[in-house]
């Protein structure tokens, strides 16, 4: 049937249709024209709708009958009718008409079809109001259209896209949360059919869908977003190509004009990926292209997008698209900071949602944890900690290691984040045990690491550690019993360094508490100039213990003024720092003081914050009498002793728990002594005294010593039980127990003289040198008794010293030491006789320190004895019966004894320069452990300002130490000492009167004199020796010249110039001695002039030289002579090495100096028989100095009598090395090989440690005999006194591939040939494989 010409509707036709083409209406329906009312029209249309609803596609007669009606309903009259009900009914009719006449529509005009579908689309807007009475009809219209897919007819129209766009926009706009699923389903059916059955999706139509995914639209109408999401999921196969084309146009070709959504491409990609990753199969490679864009902002946008795609929970993009994942990871190293920052932020979500990708991320996070940007390093920590707090299993040990490293970051913000993050992890997994024992074990190192940070110099670090300890490690808000249990087992599980840090923390808090107490005492005194000066000094000291000391000074002064005006505030503060203050009282006091200082008008009050810092540091938040005596700690220790505690469950053995518990109580006995005063506590301590564990008993005695001042009056029963135990410990306990027992008796009993006499008399009568193992404890007790009660025991002690200590013990060698070649042995391997001799030396010192009298001959005799022991290298009798390791012990004891006596002013006066020099040379001892321990003792005494300034000059000799770590440690010691002295001068106005003994620059003359008398300095014009002198000078001057405070450079130069106008007080008439002194001065001047342009200024004042070392300058004496040539000066400053052959170092002649030379090794060679970790963090030393010591790293054993260098890789056979004990795992072995001290030496192969060279075997026929060693500290004999060793054949091979280094003939100092011995190689070494080249470096 042809409907090419659309007939006009009849004006008045009713009843049934006829063959003449007039409109036929359903039965009962009158004609519908514009002549009837609207209500009537609606009534009649409803009947028409009913008729069409009931018709189906098979009713051919009815279809033919109602065709004119169908055409009539599509007329303009109905399509443009103003009444919406009319339009709705007409639309329903038209929808049914399309259903009935499908697949062919009764309308053939394209324009008419377009008008009809646009009309129907407009009617669909009525779906918006679900409460409308007509909603069901609207729903019927939608359902009909969707079911029949009526809109598919439009595909034949040229401008069908306009209809579809209008339809899509209408449906997305009307959908809302009041619609049920059926509405959404019909909408999806309708739209998906258009997409899936059409020839493609135009950009405008795609935009009508995608616009609903943009966040702004999504937030406005979530139902439209859900509709779009459902549509895309349903049509993914069809629409994917269209989406790919859109993104290709925008991302690759840069045609942003193709769509209004171009600026939202990354948001769209994110949403599309979340809907279905398959929608973006072709888009992902385009993102890889964008990641490599030259525009940083564009890369940033892509990184942000991909971070969301890779990090989303259900995403498998990283595994599905590895190239894109690898390209994305590369952005962690982007040059643009925001890109790196965004990458790091992404890692947190990735770790939490995709643990399997942690391995890929670890390496990139490692690099970023060292990023130069502070914000990036900070975010790396946040990333790792956030994931770890979610689930510890999400982060591996390596990632936690990055956080651990950042606790030492140079920036405070990063350090703080790392420390707080670790603290939170510890509290969650260790204290609360949220993830079981395995997780707790994984982070058990955190407590140690956090406490180690207390060693840092920054006050901010220290304060944060204190805060972390109070809030996370041992939360102060726990109940007393729970808090003490937490502390008890924490202390037992800490490593030694963490324990020291915790002890130091309590010590610092206690010290600050005492400063505040002293400040309050000053407030009680009448106002005076002295009082104000003392108060100012105390305020400055308190300010140094607070963050930002500069600002803190002003706040502390303000707080002091408030204290002066407010008596109630003072009383609150006094209660807070009183020994009897409980933790609960402290909390109340802190809140009360803060309330008084608060200002409601000032929300942020820096003054109040600073005061809170001070109060938190001094308040007893953990420990009080209840915590120690009344309940927790003592009861916990009792349970451990009885075996009823939960020690094993807490991961601590009962023995460790008891020992650590006692150590904890010992530390607390210093800071909270009054909290221990109860019978229950002392009964528990008495029980500990009876235990077999020596350490436990020792700690218990010390606690009695610190806290038992009222035992005699308040607890007589405890006293009567304690006295016999103390007597027994003083007579037969361990040396440490004996010391503590004597001090305890002296501290807590009024009749101490009687008690000490009861110990002294039987011990002094029973001394027997033939049983040395029974001597050690008596010697310790006698020494401390004579020191504590000199008036009572000095005289009887004198006969003991003369007749037994010196004559019978020190001057006799009863046993023969083991000749194993080792220079050091562990404590348990030292012979009892040597241990007794060491204690005898200490007894002499304690006896003298008690007397404090330099008028008697005893002090001089003792000093001569100690000097003789150093000169004889520890073998006082020179019978050669004592072993090398025992000699090392005695040298250390003698050097330490002189240093100890020097701390007493009366003995410092009588120590001669020669004795001082002998003491100084101990720091260059051939044995590593002697050098290490001596340096630590020296530093400890200097840093407490106990030793005179001249002893700081000894550190200059450390420049010759062969071990890099020891040089670095010495440099740190110097820095610490110098800063402490300068700070002391600043804080103490009275110190200006003692500048000669305090000002660090005054160490220069002592150093110059010491180096002028260095036994290695034998020829004043020898360039190599002068280079060593220069290194020693610069080792000290480098630290002194870091700042030019008060024109100090000119001051030091003036001192060196003034020394040249004097003579050496030690040998004023010896021209050679004075020449060496002036030469060292010239080297010092050369160094100062080359390193500072400010030294030529005028010195602020004329320096004073120590009369003990330099004579008064003569009036007419002028010394402008230069003692080093210009060529030598250039060599010293440029540091160019002397040209030498490959074997130059190996065949270098041996030194003929006054002590054993040894090898300078690098840090990798710094092995020893004990742990050599310094008490200060070693830093890198002088680069120029270290460069000269970085060669010859073939592994050296330093503590070896006759080392052998194995040049080949194969170790020598048949040599049975003695295993070193307590070998530090991160160090190789060191060497003590004879060569010039302080220069490169040859080294032994690893594995050749502790080889004993037999002295009764013959040497190889072709080699000269090895020279003897000169005695330590003695002046070398002249060449005429001994047969000089020839050096002509030094470089000639000794036998098959074997070389021997001969003695030195440098300078006028020859070797002592009288005692020359020629040790031979061991048989095993002789039988080594021919390919091996061995060099026997004999002394």
UniProtKB/TrEMBL annotation:
Biased composition (Basic and acidic residues): 1323-1339
A single cellular component GO annotation: nucleoplasm
Major place of residence: nucleus
Pfam families, per database record: PDS5
Family: Belongs to the PDS5 family.
Stretch list, region Disordered: 1146-1339
Protein name (Swiss-Prot/TrEMBL): PDS5 cohesin associated factor A
